[in-house]
Write a structure and sequence with these properties.
With 259 residues, the chain is of the alpha/beta class. The chain has two domains: 192 residues, Spore Coat Polysaccharide Biosynthesis Protein SpsA, Chain A, CATH 3.90.550; 50 residues, no CATH class. Helices cover 31% and strands 19% of the residues. It contains seven helices and 14 strands. The strands form three sheets. A seven-stranded mixed β-sheet has the order 2-1-3-12-5-13-10. The radius of gyration is 18 Å and the shape is globular. The two termini are 18 Å apart.
Length: 259
């Protein structure tokens, strides 16, 4: 097993218990998991986990991600290959976006009800990684920005931090089940994080990511805010849980041949 431990920010114990906590890799009692409950932001929670970690690599996972039984063997192999390609890599993810705007990776999304991407063998250099699962090498000294509000775009931010430090950022192939809710609209928390990164990385714009590229255009900003506001009005008072697909993560992984 790679020198690896986990951190998970949890705000819904039921989602955590039904997904990440069922991951087969956790059957190994030696695997360390830092569970961070109800923190004000992902960055604050995950920097605490980095400080407490003992392994060289820390995997920061969403509470609604399930790691199939084959994942442990796959992650060992892909991390060995990545170290051969770039011994000084800093950040890796399972899904992300290249500088040309192409989404890459191979994961199941319940929000989209399908497997995204295709299998691939070599790590792909990217502009940003999706937050569903992010691996960080502690020896790279790359950390999350505690000033970034909330729980959005911290994958984009830490990717840019690594790239600005001349460290490699990659997407690797190690499929998981992401039991996510459908995205109805971009919430205000997302737009606040977007505005923070737009100001922070102004000299590096545009920056690609899986949801919405961070660009220089103020017109696009206005369009996003308008669309977000319309979404809020449309779904005002609606419990988002009614849109949950309610897939069983183990059954999905088994059907995909990942168990």
């Amino acid at each position: 097993m790679s020198d690896l431990e986990f951190a998970v920010a949890v705000n819904d114990d039921g989602v955590f218990a039904n997904n990440f906590e069922r991951s087969r890799i956790l059957d190994d009692a030696s695997i360390r998991v830092h569970v961070k409950r109800r923190y004000p932001s992902a960055a604050v929670a995950y920097n605490e986990a980095l400080d407490a970690a003992k392994s060289e690599i820390v995997a920061f996972a969403h509470q609604d991600v399930y790691l199939p039984s084959r994942w442990q063997m796959q992650i060992d192999a892909v991390l060995r290959r990545l170290a051969e390609v770039d011994p000084c890599w800093a950040v890796a993810g399972l899904f992300g976006t290249t500088s040309s705007g192409r989404n890459v990776g191979h994961v199941w999304s319940s929000g989209l009800v399908r497997m995204l991407g295709e299998t691939f063998s070599e790590a792909i250099a990217v502009d940003s990684v999706d937050e569903l699962l992010i691996l960080v090498r502690r020896s790279s000294n790359i950390r999350f920005d505690p000033g970034l509000p909330g729980f959005h775009l911290y994958g984009t931010d830490i990717s840019q931090t690594a790239l600005a430090s001349q460290r490699g950022v990659y997407v690797i192939c190690a499929p998981v089940v992401h039991n996510s809710r459908p995205v109805l609209y971009l919430p205000r928390d997302y737009l606040r994080a977007y505005g923070y990164l737009r100001a922070k990385w102004e000299s590096r714009l545009p920056i690609q990511n899986c949801i919405s590229p961070i660009a220089k255009s103020k017109l696009r900003d206005l369009q996003r805010w308008g669309s977000s506001r319309l979404g809020e009005l449309r779904y005002r008072g609606v419990d988002r849980s009614v849109f949950d697909r309610k897939f069983d993560c183990v059954a999905v992984a088994t059907s995909l041949g990942l168990e």
